[in-house]
Each structure stands twice: as structure tokens, then as C-alpha cells.
Design brief:
By secondary structure, the protein is mostly helical. It contains 11 helices and 3 strands. The termini are far apart.
Length: 247
């Protein structure tokens, strides 16, 4: 009989013992899913998470009725991820497009930053990424290494468009530099609230320019009646010339 993981905290221990399945607890139901993430339908997890849930259920009773919502299925997907030890980080908000706990984040890194992942594993933990393909390095273990990456890691830099990720300490030092020199530290990036403030200022300026254009158009419309007066004068002169021409 296959060894089965009974709860999320068992994932690492039973993985070492050779467990093949994990048990996800969902609304009073126990659902078995493969403990080894390598045998999950990762393509479905990437592109069609709703179908991935159905695939992993494989006909098991889960307590969802025919009128189950997308949110119900997403909650079930998170329970499945919890069972195999790849939960969403506490500081990560539950977004409408975020399924399967931390698995989607892990898969995204595998798809887009695999070489950076290999570099970080070797640099920070002395682990060879190639061990994944020999069966000695599970995706669950990889997740434990990279779930909270060092700001200087290759993956963090790659996710930041190739730029260095600034830590709070770096911002503090840059503030000290600015206070001493009166100049902004070279290369200092804007923080999120600074970006929001700058965008707000740009929008206010755009609104001001739009208001000025509206006023200009209004003044032009008010001064336009002068044109008919000029036309009337020209018409009067033309009429007078016509009358003089008849004499």
C-alpha cells in the first residue's frame, strides 16, 4: 500500500520516507494528490488551472456541487498545494488569477528563469539544479530554497528587468547621501509610493493643461461675434461702392 502524506507538515518527512501521495483536506473531504509535483499536469496548471483541478481530482468526491464557483475551485487548488508543501507565502495576497498556492510562482520561475535558478541554488545553498532530473532534488525542496529569495539573487535581478533590487537599507543609505550632498544618489530607483505620487502629479498637470485649453476655446468662442461686424462693414462698403458706381 502506498504511503500517504496525512497533512501539509508531513510533506518533507514523508517525501524522505518515499511517500507517493498527499492528502488535501477540503471542506470535510480528504482528497489524494501526487506528492511528487513532477507528475502533476504542470501545463494545465500554467494555462488551464480549472482543468488541472479536475485532473487531480480524478473523480474523487470533494464536496463541490454543480453550482460551484471559480473561487471554490481556486480554494480547492490552494488546498492541494498546501498538501504537497508548496503554500502561498503569508505576505502574498490572494489574487483572482492566483491558483495552486505557490506552485504557479514556482512554475513561472522554472519556465522563465531556469538558468538563474540553477545559479542561485549553487551560490546560496551549494545545490546542483541537475539533481532535479536524477530524482534527488524535488520541486518541493527547490521551493523551500527560493520561496524568499535574497535581494542579490539572480532570479530577483531577472524579475526586476536585470536591475539590482534595492533593499530598505540601501534606500536609507541613499537618503543619508542625499542629505549630505544635496543630490539624489545615482541610480536610486523610485519606490512604489513615489511612483504613485509622480503619476498623480503628472495627471494633475495634464488636467491643468486640459482646463487651460478649454478656457482658451471658450474665450475664442466669446470673441467670435466680432467677425460678423467686420463682414457687415465690408458689405456696407461694397454696397456704397455699388451705389456710387451707378451714378
Amino acid at each position: 500500500m502506498a504511503k500517504v502524506a496525512a497533512k501539509t507538515s508531513d510533506a518533507a518527512r514523508l517525501e524522505a520516507l518515499g511517500a507517493t501521495e498527499a492528502e488535501a483536506q477540503f471542506r470535510g473531504h480528504t482528497i489524494r494528490v501526487p506528492l511528487n509535483l513532477e507528475v502533476w499536469p504542470l501545463n494545465l496548471v500554467r494555462e488551464h488551472p480549472f482543468n488541472a483541478v479536475d485532473y487531480l481530482l480524478a473523480g474523487q468526491e470533494c464536496g463541490l456541487r454543480d453550482d460551484a464557483t471559480v473561487d471554490d475551485y481556486r480554494e480547492l487548488s490552494d488546498a492541494m498545494a498546501d498538501a504537497v508543501g508548496i503554500s502561498r507565502l503569508p505576505e502574498t495576497p490572494a489574487a483572482p488569477d492566483q491558483w495552486f498556492g505557490g506552485i504557479t510562482t514556482l512554475v513561472n520561475i522554472l519556465d522563465r528563469f531556469e538558468q538563474d535558478l540553477a545559479s542561485d541554488l549553487r551560490r546560496f545553498w551549494g545545490v546542483e539544479y541537475s539533481e532535479r532530473f536524477t530524482g534527488t532534488l524535488s520541486l518541493r525542496r527547490i521551493w523551500t530554497y527560493i520561496r524568499r529569495l535574497d535581494p542579490t539573487s539572480s532570479i530577483v535581478r531577472a524579475q526586476n528587468g536585470g536591475k539590482e533590487h534595492w533593499t530598505e537599507q540601501m534606500f536609507i543609505l541613499a537618503s543619508v547621501y542625499q542629505a549630505l550632498t544635496g543630490e539624489i544618489y545615482p541610480g536610486r530607483p523610485l519606490r512604489q509610493h513615489e511612483i504613485a505620487k509622480a503619476l498623480e502629479a503628472m495627471q494633475a498637470k495634464a488636467n491643468h493643461v486640459a482646463n487651460l485649453k478649454e478656457r482658451e476655446a471658450a474665450y475664442a468662442a466669446q470673441s467670435s461675434p466680432a467677425a460678423p461686424a467686420v463682414s457687415a462693414m465690408e458689405q456696407a462698403i461694397a454696397n456704397r461702392r455699388h451705389e456710387l458706381g451707378k451714378r
